[in-house]
Amino acid sequence: MAQVMAGDLRKGVTFLYDGNKIMTVVDFLHVKPGKGAAFVRMKMKNVVTGAVLEQTFNPTEKFELAHIETKTMEYLYNDGEFYYFMDDEYNQIPLNHSQVEDALNFVKENMQVTMKFFQGQPFSVEPPNFVELLITICEPAVAGNTATNATKPATVETGYELQVPMFVNEGDTIRIDTRTGEYMSRV
User: Fold this and answer.
1) pLDDT band at 36; cut points 50, 70, 90
2) What percent of the chain is predicted at pLDDT more than 70?
3) Which letter does DSSP use for residue 89 in this model?
4) Which residue of 85, 149, 152, 160 pairs with 105 in a disulfide if CB–CB is 3.0 to 4.6 A?
5) Of 167, 186, 165, 184, which is closest to residue 176 (Cα–Cα)?
């Protein structure tokens, strides 16, 4: 694998840290103090667990670059234990709940998702940035409450609960921003 020195790392670069942790650079600062040796202060995020770590490195310290492969997959079904996804060549990949739990709030059957792989092993499932889901549980609006920016809880067909404006009702289809989990608009 290709190696890179800490002084050459920039935002968005993905590399192996501590042997087997796949990290991506979130923030980077090259510091050259008046006295002493230069150093690199880096904020990095573990792409598998999402944990953020701040660390200081010598600029000549070397890391292996990590090649992350992404594929568009279709979510097929859940058999109670595994969640099955299929690629364009009709290969099915079963994933357990811990590998897909964040995406499950916004993904329904036959929906396209982005799956990330490292060394041929899937580690992350990302839903599209915006999804349209049907509201299954929602209290009706109270008369006189619709003039303000008041919100009420609603549950969509995937079981995800979010706050929606008072004018949204059960049976409506809404657009949700999956990056923030917030209501965007009624469809």
Assistant:
1) confident
2) 96
3) T
4) 160
5) 184
